[in-house]
Structure formats: structure tokens, C-alpha cells
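INFO batch 0412 | record 1 of 1 | parsing
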Amino acid sequence: MSLRCGPTREVQKKLDPLACVNATALILYNHMVVHQMEDREVDRVFRALADATRRDIFERVISEGLSVSSLANDYQMSFAAVQKHVSVLERAALVTKERRGREQIVHGNVPTLRGVTALLEAFEEIWIGRATRIAEILGEKGSEE
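INFO prediction complete | emitting C-alpha cells
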């Protein structure tokens, strides 16, 4: 993912030069924080969360561990299908499984959720910064007229 400071050179001449430097520093900082998760990991997480059943499973196991069999009882699909959904979540590191006797207990993985949250917050900051710069540019054009 490559990010750069948004305004064109003509616009940058009109803006405070430090504003662009500070925005770039913020983006680089966020870029480093975000890349604690590799692109492949991020792709797996969003693919896993793209399915409504997997989102529901994840939501249910984030607060308390549930067995795969108890999860399967709540869906109108086979045990094997639910197990496949759990496997997709596990490959994305959104859940972990713990064996208790014959059962496998599924737990939500909070650190992965925090990583995804940090990623989305970084993108939010970037877009807020861009919207702010656009508003400033439009404000300057309005005051020139």
C-alpha cells in the first residue's frame, strides 16, 4: 500500500508546507502500525468477515467460547459446513480452537480484532485528512472570489 500527501504542487504552494509534511508523517506512522499485519493476513480477515454466517459465528464467540457442535445447532446447515466456516475464521486468526475432551471450543481472537480496528482507524484518519484539506482548498477559493 503506497500513500502520499494529497494536494497537487500548485495547491501545496498555497497551503502551509508543514501541513503536508505533518500529514505525510501521520500517514507513514499509520502505515507502520497497520503493517503489523501483512497484506495477506488483512486479505484473509476481510474475506472471512465478508460472509454473514462467519460474522455471526465470530460475534458469538468473541464474548464466550462455544463448541463447534453448539454453534452447528443454531444454523440450518450441516455440522461440516459450520466447521468449514470456523476453519476460515481460524485461518484468518479471528478465532482459536481449544480441545476439551471430544469437543473443540471456539474462542474469538481479540488481538486480531484490534489489528483490524487499527487498520480501519488508519484509513479513517487518512480520509478525514483528505476531506479537511479539500474543505480548506475550497474555502480558500471561495474567499479569493
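INFO post-check: Residues 1-35 have pLDDT under 50 and may be disordered.
INFO record closed
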